[in-house]
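Amino Acid Chain and Its Fold in Token Form
===========================================
Purpose: to set a sequence beside its fold so the mapping can be learned.
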Amino acid sequence: MKAWGKMTIHDSNVREKLLQLGSQKRYNFTAEYARCGYKVTYRRGLDRDKLAPTIMFKNVKINNNLVTDHLWFNYTKGFAELGKLIVGDVISFNARVASYEKLGHKIDYKLERPTKVKLVPHKNGKDTLPIPNTTKGKNELLGYIMLENKKFYQENNRPYYPWYVEKYKKFLDQRSSNTV
């Protein structure tokens, strides 16, 4: 166990390889798409919680060396521009290591501010299916996430919001009417 300011680092919970990289520069990473989801951000004074789209990657590597088994990111515009991802799609991006407080008292490490986000091409090629841009269509993107995870959310008593799904379906209808 290591002391870090007022907080404690528990070695078993720290992404040690990210810690070793440090936060002074950006690195190029590759990772496999695993799933999408959302997080609830609690806001004082609001009647309801605010949802934020998230995306999870597994087998996060630098120079083909594993640095962590998985990481969650905010589902940023760069990720949304890739289109609909399939489990196992490989993504490359640049990011910086940052520390954060986990569960109120532990320090853990994450990657933040992903840039130069690209889909590593498949040998057989892949058509990308559009999904909503997070800067203009966050509600629509949350609908896509709800639809993708409907069974999981319902089986695990996680909130499922049909209102967001309707927003996503409207987005798809508008896209198809614009391409006709």
User: Anything to note?
Assistant: Residues 42 and 169 are 27 Å apart (CA to CA). The chain has five helices and seven strands.
